[in-house]
Structures are given as structure tokens and as C-alpha cells.
User: Which sequence fits this backbone?
């Protein structure tokens, strides 16, 4: 039976590249995003590549909708074997550490940390029952290294990393892999942070499951 990956925060960049990579390796693909106009052409492109896919419209900040969407995906495909979490609003939400407001931090927590917890609560029981599965968190480099211009999102990214590492340590003995990849450059076609290259890196990390996290592209410090 085919495995299924659910990509949360799927867009035409990294989300599509991940869908192609996992889909070409015999995965069903469930795409979740708040923008239906973005999802429709993605499904059309993947279908043309003979990748079985379906899209679901949900804003990750709506926790109840996110939860019901995960239930819908499980009913549609039988089970979720891999979930990848990478919601990204763009640089317009970034705030400097000295000028950010409470609301700026709250917004990032509601976009990154709380949905991640809700997501895990939904997919983990079946993974524990099956003693298999993978939860993949995609985040920014400010999760590891403080960057003053990313003050608000850095707090959320580092919080997400802390949560993910706790999950990794707790679940690895149950046959469930939890990994995190921190992207250290602007995701853009034709660069060292090309979404296809990141998707390749993710699939390698998922396949080997030999470490918790990876920085991509690798930083030369």
C-alpha cells in the first residue's frame, strides 16, 4: 500500500518540490494551505506527473479547522505516514528585536508553534499504534542562531525547535522519526537554496533518519 505525506503550508515553491520528490517515490500527497488558488494548479501539475494528490483548504491558525482537516486526510488515504510542517507568511511579518510588539510575537506563535502542537496531537495516536511514521518540521535559521531583524519569528522558530527535539527524543524508541531542517538562505530557484535541493535534502534526512536536524544550505562558520 502506498504511503501518504501531508504537506502543511504547501505552496508553489518548497511545498511543490516536496510533493514531487515524495510523490515520485510512491507517496500519495495531501496538500494543505489557506489559498485554494495556489493549490489548484499544484494539483494539476502533480496529477500530470501521475502523482496521486488532493488538496485541502485550511489556515493553520484555525486550530479546529486544522484538526478536522487532518481527520479528513486520514479518512481519504487511510493513514498519514509522513507530515511536513512549513507554514511561511513572508518577510512582511518579520520584526526587529528592539521594535517588535507583543502582537508580533503572538502572531508568529499562532502561526508556527500552536499549529505544530495541534498537528502532532492529531497524527501521533495512529503513528504510535502503527509504531511507524515521521513528523518533519521546516523552519528558519533563527531557530538556532539569534538574528536581531528576525526578533519575533526567531522566538517562535526556537520554540518550535525545542518542541521538535523533545518529540524526537521521546518518540525515536517507538519507531517514529521527528526531524527538523533549518533553512539558512532565501528559498529561490537556481540558488543554493533551490526548493528542489531542499526537497532532496529532506528526503535524504527522512530516509536515513540518522539525526534530528540539519541546516541547509550548510553554514560555513
Assistant:
Amino acid at each position: 500500500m502506498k504511503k501518504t505525506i501531508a504537506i502543511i503550508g504547501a505552496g508553489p515553491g518548497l511545498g511543490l518540490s516536496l510533493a514531487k520528490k515524495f510523490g515520485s517515490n510512491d507517496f500519495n500527497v495531501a496538500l494543505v494551505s489557506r489559498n485554494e488558488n495556489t493549490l489548484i494548479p499544484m494539483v494539476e501539475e502533480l496529477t500530470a506527473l501521475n502523482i496521486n494528490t488532493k488538496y485541502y483548504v485550511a489556515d493553520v491558525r484555525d486550530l479546529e479547522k486544522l484538526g478536522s482537516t487532518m481527520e479528513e486526510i486520514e479518512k481519504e488515504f487511510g493513514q498519514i505516514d509522513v507530515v511536513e510542517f512549513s507554514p511561511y507568511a513572508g518577510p512582511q511579518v518579520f520584526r526587529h528585536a528592539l521594535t517588535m510588539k507583543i502582537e508580533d510575537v503572538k502572531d508568529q506563535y499562532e502561526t508556527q508553534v500552536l499549529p505544530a502542537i495541534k498537528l502532532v496531537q492529531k497524527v501521533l495516536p495512529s503513528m504510535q499504534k502503527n509504531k511507524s511514521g515521521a513528523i518533519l518540521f521546516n523552519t528558519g535559521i533563527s531557530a538556532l542562531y539569534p538574528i536581531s531583524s528576525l526578533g519575533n519569528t526567531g522566538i517562535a522558530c526556537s520554540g518550535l525547535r525545542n518542541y521538535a527535539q523533545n518529540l524526537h527524543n521521546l518518540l525515536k524508541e517507538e519507531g517514529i522519526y521527528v526531524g527538523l531542517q533549518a533553512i539558512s538562505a532565501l528559498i529561490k530557484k537556481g540558488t543554493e537554496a533551490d526548493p528542489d535541493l531542499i526537497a532532496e535534502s529532506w528526503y535524504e534526512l527522512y530516509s536515513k533518519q540518522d539525526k534530528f536536524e540539519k541546516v541547509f544550505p550548510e553554514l560555513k562558520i
Observations:
- The mean pLDDT is 95.
- The first helix runs from residue 14 to 23.
